[in-house]
Amino acid sequence: MAKSKKKAETVFLVCEETGDYNYVLRRKPGGEKLKLKKYSPRLRKHTVHVEKKK
Q1: 4-8, 30-34, 41-45, 46-50: which has the minimum mean pLDDT?
Q2: Beta bridge partners of 23
């Protein structure tokens, strides 16, 4: 019988400045939290977004 694969988890990227949930990603569990510069529609500029689980 084959080994079961780990399922991808759904994570949200939350803007640090406004607290808005702007992006949804599916990624493998484990590893460190993502911290990316992404576009924030409310502020109309690029801001730092951090990973948050549901």
Answers
A1: 4-8
A2: 13
The SS3 call for residue 30 is coil
Q: Do the Cβ atoms of 22 and 38 come closer than 8 Å?
A: yes
Domains of the chain by residue range: 9-53
For residues 14 and 49, the answer to whether their CB atoms sit within 8 Å is: yes
Is the CB of residue 38 less than 8 Å from the CB of residue 18? no
pLDDT(3) > 70 = no
pTM for this predicted structure = 0.81
Instruction: Classify domain 9-53 at the CATH topology level.
Output: Rubrerythrin, domain 2 (2.20.28)
What's the full length of the chain, in residues?
54
Contact 20, 14 (CB under 8 A): yes
